[in-house]
Amino acid sequence: MSYRHTIHHTTYEFNDLRTLLAKAGPFRSGDALAGLCADTAEERVAAQMALADVPLKTFLQEVVIPYEQDEITRLIVDAHDVNAFALVSHFTVGQFRDWLLSDHADTLSLQQLGPGITPEMVAAVSKLMRNQDLISVAKKCEVVTRFRNTIGLKGHLSVRLQPNHNTDDPKGIAASIIDGLLYGSGDAVIGINPATDSPQATITLLKMLDQLRGQFEIPTQSCVLCHVTTALQIMHSAPVDLVFQSIGGTEQTNSSFGVNLSLLQEAYEAGLSLQRGTVGNNLMYFETGQGSALSANAHGGVDQQTCEVRAYAVARKFSPLLVNTVVGFIGPEYLFDGKQIIRAALEDHFCGKLLGLPMGVDICYTNHAEADQDDMDNLLTLLGVAGVNFIMGVPGADDIMLNYQSTSFHDALYARKVLGLKPSPEFDQWLQRQGIMSTEGRLLPVGNSHHLLKYI
């Protein structure tokens, strides 16, 4: 089916829904590299006007990647909840945008709507929204998950403590962990990106994390971000809390990551069988990022933002504790500068939350991107207002193993202070008991004799 819109005396025609979505998106370097974006600003506006008139029901009839060729398309179509969709089924994309911005779309109605909307519907409506629209709607969403603590409640901001080390040295990692804990970070997860995917090295790190967590009775979860097959291999000989995997929005992208839905289901069920959660059983941790499908030459002609949102259908299937869009990590080939990174992060957070996911954002950039820490400060503040579930806490904001710039423990303190946010309730109480934070959320002075420091 083709779509068209006329501006003055020029009629712009778009051959199919996939093309229309690509042309309607804000300009970004990845779509330009793939040859998918609008050629001119006027063509982009024409595509947005045409997209606004598309009925939401069309997305159930026309898929962007054929059903027969892609298991994620099959997941999206087969899992669609017709009853939940009934609330908005009579809308066009433009009318859906207006409803989302209205007072009728409150927290409860958005939670009920989630199973009834597809990733492509959500990607489409985001392309018609300004940044403030994305923030306004996302703030109304509340997605709460639990494992050893409660993440995602309104008024709270959690932090993944990311103590990476370029040689996986346990003492160096432990020092970064203690540093982060003393700044109030770590309630989302204490998560290490290992320098290698060695099963034995992963076991060593997991045992160290579990021993530290248990010794100080920290109400949080740990994770070594190894490949899911490594986690399955070691699961019954190591204390695995969360099961991690990077995912993408096409079957071919996930194949490049060495995974498929069946393997993820196996890992999910194996993780559940361990019964390590104390207040809940959300145990999957997924990471995504715009551009992953293009970098794997697996986008199938779909723009990078729509591919990204399709990845959220994969995540949604497994009721994750955490979903993290690593927004600027892949590089300027996909998101060229601070403006593109900020826009992409707000889109990802909005789309994930609307689909019912516990979205966090790694507010980051690589050193060859046209971005700096001021851009990250802006994005951090915007996402804090939007109600992001969690961010990263990296020593000095500089990851010495992955070689990119993220957010620091101090950045998290800033966001919590200026926006009146707290850590997860259980972790907040632990910080107070440890004499690290006051009941008002102020960081307390810690002397050299603090018992956490004795660990290192």
The poorly predicted ranges are none
- Supply the helix-strand structural class: alpha/beta
Whole-angstrom Rg: 22 Å
CATH class of the largest domain: Alpha Beta
The major beta sheet can be summarized as: 4 strands, parallel
Fourth-level CATH superfamily of the largest domain: Aldolase class I
What would you call the shape? globular
Pfam families: EutB
Main location: other
InterPro entries: Aldolase_TIM (IPR013785), EutB (IPR010628), EutB_dom_2_sf (IPR044939), EutB_N_sf (IPR044941)
Organism: Chitinophaga sancti
Could you characterize what this model shows?
This protein is of the alpha/beta class. A hairpin with a 2-residue loop joins strand 1 (3-7) and strand 2. It has helices spanning 17-24, 29-34, 41-52, 58-61, 71-78, 82-85, 93-101, 107-113, 119-126, 131-140, 170-182, 199-215, 228-234, 251-256, 261-274, 292-295, 304-317, 338-354, 373-386, 409-419, 425-433; strands spanning 3-7, 10-14, 145-146, 150-151, 158-161, 189-192, 222-224, 243-246, 284-288, 322-326, 359-362, 390-393, 398-399, 404-405. Substrate binds at residues 160-162, 193, 287, 362. It catalyses: ethanolamine = acetaldehyde + NH4(+). Catalyzes the deamination of various vicinal amino-alcohols to oxo compounds. Allows this organism to utilize ethanolamine as the sole source of nitrogen and carbon in the presence of vitamin B12.
